[in-house]
TrEMBL record:
It comes from Hypholoma sublateritium (strain FD-334 SS-4). Keywords: Membrane, Transmembrane, Transmembrane helix. The chain crosses the membrane at residues 96-117, 124-141, 147-167, 174-195, 215-236, 310-329, 366-383, 390-409, 421-446. The keyword Membrane applies. It comes from the Eukaryota. GO terms for molecular function: transmembrane transporter activity. Belongs to the ThrE exporter (TC 2.A.79) family. Residues 1-231 form the Threonine/serine exporter-like N-terminal domain. This is Threonine/serine exporter-like N-terminal domain-containing protein.
């Protein structure tokens, strides 16, 4: 729980461990709490313990915990030695310093800006700076001040949105509001939280799943609300920009229709069954791309290269780099055998997502399900055949599907409505959940039964 394990697996792992070390125990898992009851059920005397804990995702530590757990259930080490190792792991400091983690947040937002939200070379630096400030406030200020921690997400989303709208209103139109505001807050999107709640519900753990899902949705609405406030706050100071935006919206939604009447010059048309008179209507709709709007950003051909969307070939460089940095940001040690596996699975996830999106239009849930199925198939097969940890090897690939899915749903700030953001988020995560469960069922249908509980999504 301290290292962010998938909560729908914790109960089954505890039951499996208790069975192996021959301890009579029952477990109930609630959000942030595990109730453990030890004792002889026949005599009716039992001892109950409440374990309260919370933490953030730490891939390196999770992998070590799973190795200790697997060693115990396979009778390789004693429970006492395992308990000492777990204590040492809980007391160990994070593998990276705060400033380095802020730098990783800067890199991740800068890379996801052109990759998922159509940002330019100029936009990516602004999004990165916003993410650096966000990560510093999250890791330093919010952890020390309980009062600020309650309003942290709203204040940072207002600040990012206000700055992005201010920069996008510069007359040269160098900056793109959608790309900067979407990429700037990628570090506080509750993608993993919604995913774990969706997995809980799918595995019939209704109490945990419902509580987490409602919290994640309200949290997403807070973010959407903050972005909208930041946007409107700037437009309050700059009414000229508000008029320009209204004109642009009217221009983009305009359809030109011409209607007229025609009459035949003579009656010969009657021989071939064509009427002598009638009306005609000509309708012409200008597509956003014809007006130089790409992914919600104004990108005319006359703009220089650094204001244009990135060419397709850059994806082959950005995706592996983003996957590596994303793994490090989730506290995966740099010198580990798992890291290359994570990057490969993540690249396969993005590739299958892109291919599916090419053939299936406007269905971010179906596209995400295909990407998640690929991740699940590779991660569970790696765990089954090569003895790795399925969950930690899959996390990076699954987390990459969340911004990719949101970009297919039109970006985070496309509609400027928190409820729409929440709906897009749920559509993406339900697709991911279905894909993960299907892949796991496929892999674990074949082969011998495991005596340890499955540590996977």
């Amino acid at each position: 729980m301290s290292f962010g394990a998938p909560s729908h697996r914790i109960e089954s792992q505890l039951v499996a461990a208790a069975r192996i070390i021959e301890v009579e125990a029952e477990f109930i898992h609630l959000p942030g709490v595990i109730i453990c009851s030890y004792g002889d059920q026949e005599l009716g005397c039992s001892e109950t313990h409440f374990v309260k804990c919370g933490g953030r995702l730490s891939l390196g530590s999770l992998h070590k915990v799973h190795l200790i757990y697997r060693s115990v259930v396979h009778d390789e080490i004693s429970a006492k030695d395992a308990a000492e190792k777990l204590d040492a792991l809980l007391l160990a400091p994070p593998p990276y310093a705060v400033l380095f983690r802020c730098f990783l947040a800067f890199c991740l937002s800068a890379l996801i800006c052109p990759l998922a939200f159509g940002g330019s070379f100029v936009d990516m630096w602004i999004a990165g700076i916003a993410a650096f400030i966000l990560a510093y406030l999250q890791l330093s200020v919010a952890e020390k001040s309980a009062l600020y921690a309650n309003v942290f997400e709203i204040t940072i989303s207002i600040l990012v949105s206000f700055t992005a709208r201010g920069l996008s209103s510069i007359r040269s139109q160098m900056f793109c509001y959608t790309a900067i505001s979407s990429a700037g807050i990628i570090g506080i999107l509750p993608g993993y939280l919604i995913l774990s709640s969706s997995l809980e519900l799918a595995s019939k753990n209704i109490v945990c799943g419902s509580v987490k899902m409602v919290y994640a949705l309200i949290y997403t609405l807070f973010l959407g609300f903050g972005l909208q406030i930041g946007n409107d706050l700037y437009l309050l100071f700059d009414p000229t920009m508000r008029r320009r935006l209204d004109e642009l919206a009217a221009k983009l939604s305009t359809t030109v229709s011409l209607t007229g009447i025609w009459l035949a010059d003579n009656g010969t048309a009657d021989d071939v069954g064509v009427p002598l008179n009638g009306t005609w209507t000509f309708t012409h709709t200008i597509l956003p791309k014809q007006q130089d709007i790409h992914d919600g950003c104004y990108r005319p051909a006359r703009f220089p290269w650094y204001l244009q969307p990135f060419p397709f070939w850059t994806t082959f460089l950005i995706v592996p780099l983003f996957s590596t940095l994303s793994s490090l940001a989730n506290l995966q040690p740099l010198k580990s055998k798992q890291l290359p596996v994570m990057v490969i699975i993540s690249c396969c996830s993005y590739a299958s997502n892109k291919i599916a999106n090419h053939y299936i239009f406007n269905r971010s849930d179906v596209v995400s399900a295909i990407g998640a199925f690929t991740v699940g198939l590779l991660g569970n097969a790696y765990s089954r055949k090569m003895g790795g940890t399925a969950f930690t090897s899959m996390v990076t690939g699954v987390l990459l599907l969340v911004p990719s899915g949101l970009s297919q749903a039109g970006g985070i700030t496309a509609n400027g409505n928190g409820i729409d953001i929440g709906g897009a988020m749920i559509a993406v995560t339900i697709g991911i959940t279905v894909g993960l469960f299907m892949s796991q069922a496929l892999v674990y249908t074949f082969g011998s039964r495991k005596n340890a509980a499955v540590f996977s999504f």
